User: Which sequence fits this backbone?
């Protein structure tokens, strides 16, 4: 198993605002700089899926595997020989709103998918988290 976690605490931001942006999957490209587009039909709930199209790559199908409203969600991308599980969490602390992203890759071909996809996802987590917070501040001030 391969795992990478990134956390940062932000002041002056509400968890409801972050949650609203997270669940608006069709507009993820507003804050997810490496996406051409993202498309989800139906509700943001366990079992539903969305198609995510990274720039310069083929679209991938991502399934929601856990949703805890205003707290966290987990999605799973299945690759040949590996799975990438991505958990996004919110935690209200005395210092502000703590956002955490945890990426896990499992399976016999994990080494390949870490190299092709997961390491880049982990490397861009800080920038995407900042862009998410900046969008929340701009939209909901």
Assistant:
């Amino acid at each position: 198993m391969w795992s990478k976690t990134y956390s940062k605490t932000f002041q002056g931001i509400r968890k409801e605002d972050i949650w609203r942006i997270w669940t608006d999957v069709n507009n993820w490209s507003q804050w997810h700089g490496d996406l051409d587009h993202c498309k989800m039909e139906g509700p943001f709930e366990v079992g539903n899926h969305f198609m995510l199209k990274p720039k310069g790559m083929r679209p991938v199908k991502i399934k929601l595997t856990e949703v805890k409203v205003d707290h966290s969600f987990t999605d799973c991308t299945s690759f040949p020989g590996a799975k990438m599980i991505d958990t996004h969490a919110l935690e209200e602390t005395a210092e502000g709103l703590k956002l955490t992203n945890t990426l896990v890759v499992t399976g016999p071909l994990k080494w390949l998918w870490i190299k092709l996809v997961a390491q880049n996802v982990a490397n861009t987590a800080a920038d995407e988290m900042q862009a998410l917070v900046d969008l929340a501040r701009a939209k909901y001030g």
The mean pLDDT is 96.
